[in-house]
Write a structure and sequence with these properties.
Elements: H1 8-20, H2 26-36, H3 41-56, H4 58-68, H5 75-90, H6 95-105, H7 111-123, H8 125-131, H9 137-140, H10 145-155, H11 157-166, E1 173-177, E2 190-191, E3 198-201, H12 207-211, E4 215-217, H13 223-229, E5 236-239, H14 246-254, E6 260-265, H15 271-281, E7 287-290, E8 305-311, H16 326-329, H17 332-349, E9 353-363, H18 372-381, E10 385-393, H19 395-398, E11 403-410
Parallel strand pairs: 5-6, 5-8, 6-7, 8-9
Antiparallel strand pairs: 1-3, 1-4, 2-3, 9-11, 10-11
Helix pairs in contact: 1-2, 1-3, 1-5, 3-5, 4-5, 5-6, 5-7, 6-7, 10-11, 17-18
């Protein structure tokens, strides 16, 4: 007999437990559960919403949980209660259904405790909601203490709290139209303000248009580095950290496909998909290659490119809305390690820029130490380059992901 299909709440609970034990990203756990279980579209949506909303609001939910019962709970029951509280307070699902279905998942010996906690939470909803404004920002907006303090210090209270609140929202799905392969725009799509050619997709993904290369799913924040790079037809351009290919595809679109594009990637196994993605969007046949940019620029590439786009590995601090568990993986000491790595990669990739050429350094971080500070460190030892322009995109202002880009020009 085939295995019995589990319900969405049970799968969400198990995914949260597995995530808490470490080593697996939330989206990976959800993808596995979706592949293994024959869930309806609505059940799949419920499972995903519980997992993502619980992780986005983890500090706040834990505060509520410990307010209801200060003592320790077995790990399984702790996460079951957190999922139930998420449905009650974050997703605002029907109270009776949430309490009843969550209690059913608990083992018989613990059902009384789970039932009592959730019913008590329902009774005290008004009390909890009234207390929200007085909670510390790191608890109210579910941030690690160190990161909340860092943002408050760097951006000020008003900006930092607006950004934290933005990161609790469910991100929309955006797509960029491909001018090389025009298409009719569905009536339900909404243009992104200030980003021509970008749309918020409502409804299901346009699989046929994606397969045909007419649209590319990405975030509008990626347009800033392309704007600074200003790729021109006929140029020789290097996209140094290219996979999965979104920015390379944007370079092809910006030049009408008339560009000598080299897209490199560290991991060899990502090269076939990178090449496939670029072939799909059109233009001249792109060249893809494996290279580790912590190592010197190969002699045949040295000083040979009109423009280099360098989108470096970073902490992802600008995309916490989209990458729901990134805030819990981040460590303050990791930013120092990353900034050193970023500088090393920048120094190597800069070797590929010809005299008179340009390089755009890009991250999806909003942390100065990974952004402007790396650029300043580079310029201090490379007088042949100068900073022409940079841009910091804060997510709540942009209504998109956060990002940083700096245009460096070789004399």
């Amino acid at each position: 007999m085939p295995p019995k299909t589990e319900n969405a709440r049970s799968l969400a609970w198990k995914a949260l437990l597995r995530w808490n034990r470490g080593g697996v990203f939330a989206e990976t756990l959800l993808a596995r559960a979706t592949a293994e279980q024959k869930l309806s579209l609505s059940d799949r949506g419920l499972m995903q919403s519980i997992v993502y909303a619980t992780l986005r609001n983890l500090r706040l939910l834990e505060h509520l949980r410990y307010t209801l019962r200060p003592g320790a709970l077995e790990e399984k029951m702790h996460w079951l209660v957190l999922a139930g509280l998420c449905e009650l307070f974050i997703l605002n699902h029907a109270e009776h259904a949430v309490v009843s279905e969550t209690v059913k998942l608990a083992p018989a010996r613990a059902r009384g405790v789970v039932n009592g906690m959730l019913r008590n939470a329902v009774r005290r909803r008004g009390e909890f909601e009234a207390a929200l404004p007085s909670l510390p920002p790191a608890v109210r907006y579910s941030m690690p203490d160190w990161l909340a303090a860092r943002w408050l210090r760097e951006f000020g209270e008003q900006e930092a709290t607006a950004m934290m609140a933005w990161n609790l929202q469910t991100p929309p799905v955006y797509a960029r139209l491909n001018p090389l392969k025009p298409m009719d725009i569905p009536a339900a799509w909404i243009p992104h303000p200030g980003a021509p050619g970008w749309y918020c997709i409502h409804g299901s993904l346009p699989l046929e248009a994606l397969q045909a290369g007419q649209v590319y799913v990405a975030d509008p924040s990626t347009r800033h580095c392309i704007r600074l790079l200003a790729p021109q037809p006929g140029e020789k351009i290097l996209d140094a950290c290219a996979a999965p290919g979104g920015k390379s595809a944007a370079i092809l679109a910006a030049t009408g496909g008339d560009v000598q594009l080299l897209a490199t990637e560290l991991e060899p196994h990502r090269l076939p998909q990178l090449k496939e993605n670029l072939l799909r969007v059109g233009g001249q046949l792109p060249e893809v290659a494996q290279h580790d940019w912590t190592r010197p620029c190969p002699p045949e590439w040295r000083g040979s490119f009109d423009a280099v786009l360098l989108d470096v590995p970073c902490s992802n601090s600008g995309v916490l809305q989209r990458r729901v568990d990134a805030r819990w993986r981040m460590q303050e000491e990791e930013i120092a390690r990353l900034s050193a790595l970023q500088l090393q990669i920048l120094e190597r990739a800069a070797e590929a820029v010809r005299s008179g050429g340009r390089l755009v350094y890009s991250t999806c971080s909003i942390d100065r130490r990974e952004d402007r500070a790396v650029v300043e460190s580079f310029l201090a030892t490379h007088p042949e380059f100068s900073l022409k322009e940079d841009y910091l995109a804060l997510p709540h202002r942009e209504q998109a992901d956060g990002a940083y880009a700096a245009l460096l020009v070789h004399s």
